[in-house]
Design goal:
Strand content: 15-25%
Number of helices: 15
Strand order of the largest sheet: 15-16-17-14-13-19-20
Shape: globular
Radius of gyration: 24 Å
Distance between the termini: 71 Å
């Protein structure tokens, strides 16, 4: 049965103008499982207008305690529906069920965490030079925010943005990727059941035209985007035209560094999880594995042996370890990157092509692929593949590892594997990335801030720092003296 979704505007489920739908294709079966609405420019404008009206008439007047109650109700509903929502997300983007199910619970935790901050948004009192002037600040919501998410983790990425936006007191318009919109549209039903006032949360879907209509709209106060650097630059340019702030969570080419003194059992597992979990379709993938020469051959051997045993198959099967590429364009893009690496002369250790076998015939499966002795100057080491492709790079010294790690236009995440605490702390200081994991990789907590440097974007998601992305500061100065002032003098 094919589900036909509707847009969610001003607490109404609305069919697209002209009955304009496009198919959502299951990347495992190749079959259409849902029809997704293509919002018109008029419907995008209606969503922005609804959000603006809600902010000015209701939400800006709703205190933090009441916002928190609604967010906790939403968290409860998402948690109660986690299994169903996980199945839908796996069906929509091919990620294995044990990850998508966990991401629903992660998202619910985010709404609860930020609900706890909604009534704790404090200003400051500021002592001035003048004893009879009182100065204080107010922390206020921005107003209307656009939240644009990617296809690899729609609900997890949305919680990074929506939870702090609501806690801070903003109204929102959500635009998911056209390649994975279904869980976000299903989420609209939970929002509706939670009882948010009309217009506080709006959801519009469609291709790049919907995104452009939102980012170029004159009554939007902030854009938060997760996706490619190429699109991020366009969004930043649109925002710059109107002088509104943006949060950009973009790509990565993250170094995962194994030293000779590392616990190799843990390090190899971390390296595998860093690149082959989520089929490598994650911005934090440890796609560059830097290994010190003393253990280089041993690490490559272990990686190859384990990569060959990774179980590919139905993403809804809890024993499956790696699912599909999320969609056909991404499938072809990853294979093209592999072919380019071969042509560039990279030495392949294992994998390197589309996967075949029983149960894999219709899906966008790619073999777990490892290249060794990769030059950090190569395209394979410098350009994001966003797939299950690992570039292994040897190094000799700690200084060389730092130089290689930082020799990239990206700066999102990194990993360090060592039993030497002093070395670990030196590496933490030296690596130019927004996240440094030590003796772990691809770990996330809602209270820990996340965000990158350089071409990986700017701004923070998760943690109390994320609230700052959705707040602005107003300064208030009250002169309560009885002294007469010179009207033409600067009041200092």
């Amino acid at each position: 049965m094919t589900t036909q979704y509707k847009l969610y505007i001003d607490n109404q489920f609305v069919a697209p103008d002209g009955d304009d739908y496009f198919p959502a294709v299951n990347p495992y079966t190749g079959e259409t499982h849902a029809m997704v609405p293509q919002a018109s420019d008029a419907q995008v404008a209606a969503a922005v207008a609804a959000a603006r009206r809600a902010y000015e008439t209701v939400w800006s007047k709703t205190n933090g305690l009441e916002r928190a109650k609604l967010m906790i109700r939403l968290a409860d509903l998402l948690e109660a529906n986690a299994e169903r929502m996980g199945i839908l997300e796996t069906t929509d983007n091919g990620k294995v069920i044990r990850e998508t199910g966990a991401q629903m619970l992660f998202a619910a935790r985010a709404y609860r965490f930020f609900a706890g901050t909604a009534d704790k948004i404090f200003g400051q009192t500021i002592p001035l030079d003048q004893k009879d002037v009182f100065d204080f600040t107010r922390r206020e919501a921005l107003g209307v925010c656009v939240l644009i998410t990617a296809w690899n983790s729609p609900m997890g990425l949305l919680s990074n943005k929506l939870a702090p936006a609501l806690a801070a007191g903003n109204c929102v318009i959500i635009k998911p990727s056209e390649h994975a919109s279904c869980t976000t549209l299903e989420f609209a039903k939970l929002v509706d059941e939670a009882g948010f006032p009309p217009g506080v949360i709006n959801i519009v879907t469609g291709d790049y035209r919907v995104g452009q209509a939102l980012t170029r709209h004159g009554r939007v106060d902030r854009v938060s985007f997760t996706g490619s650097p190429e699109v991020g630059r366009k969004i930043a340019a649109d925002a710059g035209e109107r002088l509104i702030p943006v949060t950009l969570e973009l790509g990565g080419k993250s170094p995962n560094i194994i030293f000779e003194d590392a616990d190799l059992d843990k390090a190899v597992v971390g390296a595998l999880a860093g690149i082959f979990a989520a089929t490598g379709q994650t911005c934090i993938a440890g796609s560059r594995l830097l290994v010190q020469r003393g253990v280089y051959d041993e690490v490559v051997r272990r990686l190859a042996e384990r990569a060959k045993t990774i179980k590919l198959g139905n993403p809804l099967d809890k024993t499956t370890e790696m699912g599909t590429a999320a969609n056909e364009p991404q499938f072809k893009r990853i294979l093209g990157k592999i072919d380019a690496a071969k042509a560039e002369g990279a030495t392949i250790v294992t994998g390197g092509k589309a996967a075949s076998g029983d149960g894999l015939e219709k899906g966008f499966f790619i073999e777990p692929t490892i290249f060794r002795d990769v030059s950090n100057k190569s395209e394979l080491a410098q350009e994001e593949v966003f797939g299950p492709v690992l570039a292994v790079i040897p190094f000799d010294t700690e200084e060389e590892a730092v130089a290689i790690a930082n020799d990239t236009k990206y700066g999102l995440a990194s990993g360090v594997w060592t039993t030497n605490l002093s070395r670990a702390m030196r590496m933490v200081r030296a690596i130019n990335a927004g996240t440094v994991w030590v003796n772990t990789y691809r770990a996330a907590q809602v209270m820990a801030p996340f965000g990158g440097f350089k071409d990986s974007g700017f701004g923070k998601e998760r943690g109390v720092m994320a609230l700052e992305e959705f707040l602005q500061t107003k300064n208030v100065m009250i002169d309560f003296s009885l002294e007469e002032r010179d009207p033409f003098a600067l009041k200092m």
